[in-house]
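Contributing new records

If you add data, match the layout below exactly. Sequence lines come first and carry their own label; structure lines follow with theirs. Keep one chain per record. Anything else will be rejected by the validation script.
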Amino acid sequence: MTAEDSTAAMSSEPASAAAAKVPEGVAGAPNEAALVALMERTGYSMVQENGQRKYGGPPPGWEGPHPQRGCEVFVGKIPRDVYEDELVPVFEAVGRIYELRLMMDFDGKNRGYAFVMYCHKHEAKRAVRELNNYEIRPGRLLGVCCSVDNCRLFIGGI
């Protein structure tokens, strides 16, 4: 191996190590750096599958069963260029997030809604009380309500 070969090998190692840290659903996102910084700050993981990007579930250090019914809220009216790096700080202000699922289009934009599951029921109720009509951007209010487990299908944006 020549000096040039070893220099090239050393310079490519950190790049490949950094690329390996970025999950598939996050790599190439317009706000990739902000999402990576969020994951590093919180210790949560993020993965994209089946049209949704999952943040957390379970949180770092979680011991015990899955949160009970009533711990999840539905978040609607999300601007299509808002992602987890803006949503998580808002929703973690009212309680510990177990999991946030942001519904995504194939073009990389969000679909305008998400589900946030908290570790405890009282945190979900507080989120509805305090974050419904929260102004995420000037003139853009979020709609936050309790999520209910049911077998009905919602069809929107027709």
